[in-house]
Amino acid sequence: VGHAADPGEGATLAAAAQPDVILLDLHMPGINGMEAIPVLKEAAPGARIVMLTVSEDAEDLMACLRAGASGYLLKNIDGDFLVDSIRRAARGESTMSAQMTSKLVRELHAVTQAGNGASRKAPLSPREQEILKLVATGSSNKEVARALGVAESTVKIHVQHILRKLGLSSRVQAAVYAAENGLVP
To answer: Are strands 48-53 and 21-24 parallel, antiparallel or unpaired?
Structure first.
């Protein structure tokens, strides 16, 4: 029923059209697809959101599903599979590319093994834990990069991954998380 160039336009269109299914790319101008999910769900509460993306990252998959997506399809899928997936989503079913199903299973196993199902948060790598500790002490990305001998852009990417894995939206929330979990005094 429509096509939008960005999430803001998409929310306006979704509110007016109240579609059954919204196909959403993960990488868009402005906010990313993950951040757009709650905005679109508010605009069209009955719509099922199916991610259509090139990202094969299990973290992106998990984050989108946690945000409320009902499906996750890779853009390299067959056209017939795409149409079938849209129909399945409209019927209230979940849909996923085959490659992503195995990644989802592996991710769920990792979460279960990490906390016997008690925690939904992906474990941080040792480097991410190190960066989180420095961020929690108030260090900027530049200061963290200097302390660890890495590029500032590398630190920025790690911080984004930390926030995504922990389901947080800011460095302040990350600092609170670190303090609450004994990573910093």
So the answer is: parallel
